Amino acid sequence: MMQSKSEIIAQDIAAKVKHQQFKVNSFLPSESELTKLYGTSRETVRKALEELNSLGLIQKIRGKGSLVLNLEQYSFPISGISSFAELSQSLGMDAQTEVLTLAKMSSLPELFKKKFPNEKQQKGFYVERLRKINGKPEILDCDFLFTPLINELPLSAAQTSIYNYLENEMGLEVSYATKEITVEKIDENLQKKLNLKDKTAVLVASHNYLSDATLFQLTLSYHDPSKFKFVDFARRQRIKL
Amino acid sequence: MMQSKSEIIAQDIAAKVKHQQFKVNSFLPSESELTKLYGTSRETVRKALEELNSLGLIQKIRGKGSLVLNLEQYSFPISGISSFAELSQSLGMDAQTEVLTLAKMSSLPELFKKKFPNEKQQKGFYVERLRKINGKPEILDCDFLFTPLINELPLSAAQTSIYNYLENEMGLEVSYATKEITVEKIDENLQKKLNLKDKTAVLVASHNYLSDATLFQLTLSYHDPSKFKFVDFARRQRIKL
DNA sequence: AAGTGGTCTAGACCACTTC
DNA sequence: AAGTGGTCTAGACCACTTT
């Protein structure tokens, strides 16, 4: 995985913030100092800072400098586009995955047709996985991965990390996703699987795309409402859409 | 409000996509063509495209061009950082706001202390507003705005748009927010106000900041779960935090 | 080979903050 | 006046896609 200079700089600054070499509520070295430090042009340093700015790690203040913000830790279950494996690792959680289903299908299952009425009939892999935190079921992930783009899906990939398999084994480049969070009524079957008191769950429905804008995966993620927490960092929009 | 060249270009391209002068699923003119079209340097055009890319309006594909994506319309109630007034206008909704409370407080109300235990005692304005869509109550917004930064808050501002008042009347620059979405148990009082069947609501809790990183507002937004929908566009992260 | 986007550079000028 | 970030430029070289 080739990284650009600006990504290396951004990564390095993020690491130094994490290890408190650069402290929260203080200013980073100025752009001209960073330019000397990393031996690059100012625009390259600025690109790195812009990346960190958009992530909410710093706030750039004109005439003063780049202030390090107290970025709240990623909260489970989702923020941005990350796999369960990545999140549970970065949060240092006691997490297990139980694969309930892994099957090749000749068309989109009913569950997906209902939630994604615009998607056409397609072949693919259906994966159903129960995520447990501290031994207690918390999330049911239902994935549909399209064939022939994804032609094989070993059980080991479903047990550990599908994203890792796609990116590192198959060389696919996961790029972006659209997500929709709603509160839904669920049936008894799902209620039992998640061990819920009520027939209500938080649903996170996603379309997932590769860097060439190919839709490769649909996801329905059912969460225990009492455990669900979504944390977001948002900047005020200047462009009207 | 001064806009940079790159913002003007981004805004212009977004408008042309909206009016189907640039069509979804087709490519924008190449960067060199846009450079000629807008009479700027390539880096300036690229900055505009990068902005649109991060918003999910286009997908840049190396060697091919910038593909216009089918961006789902902003769904109510929140995406990014926008005011209720802005959202209801851009979505063309039949929305009303009823101001239930507007009071100057000498300290943070209990409700906020409970949800934001890290915030210190502070003076400010407490605003409670009921949002109705098609005449039906859907959201209860509870805001706390800090004094002395915000020293006056006319009722008319609370009835229309507090953000508009802060930005255009007071000259403050709203910059970013951290948001947390959870599902909460609510009391009978709140249940009545929102006319809910169950004692459950979706809570969106926000810290809102100015461009100089000053915290100016805390918000607790209670939503009818059956109406709640949060739509998010997310790009895969390259920087590990 | 030609066209596309991706990265990087060195320099310029501006606006804001601080002294 | 000096230091900070904000914007823009003209040019270079690279990697990928298409013909």
Name the descriptors.
homodimer, 241 residues, alpha+beta, Arc Repressor Mutant, subunit A, Chorismate lyase, 2 domains, 6-stranded antiparallel sheet, two-stranded antiparallel ribbon, 33% strand, globular, DNA-binding
Condensed summary:
The structure is a homodimer of 241-residue chains. By secondary structure, the first copy, chain A, is α+β, with helices and mostly antiparallel strands. Helix content of chain A is 29%, strand content 33%.
Report on this structure.
2 copies of one chain form a homodimer. Helices cover about 30% and strands about 35% of the residues of chain A. The first copy, chain A, is an alpha+beta fold and about 240 residues long. Chain A folds into 2 domains: about 5-70, Winged helix-like DNA-binding domain superfamily/Winged helix DNA-binding domain (Arc Repressor Mutant, subunit A, Orthogonal Bundle); about 85-225, Chorismate lyase (3-Layer(aba) Sandwich), CATH 3.40.1410. In chain A, the strands form 2 sheets. Chain A has a 6-stranded antiparallel sheet with strand order 3-4-5-8-7-6. In chain A, strands 1-2 form a two-stranded antiparallel ribbon. In chain A, a hairpin with a 2-residue loop joins strand 4 and strand 5 (about 135-145). The longest helix of chain A has 14 residues, at about 5-20. Chain A is globular and about 60 Å long. Chain A starts with a helix and ends in a 6-residue tail after the last strand. At the A-B interface, helix 1, helix 3, strand 6, strand 7 and strand 9 of A face helix 1, helix 3, strand 6, strand 7 and strand 9 of B. The first copy, chain A, binds a DNA duplex (19 and 19 nucleotides) through helix 3.
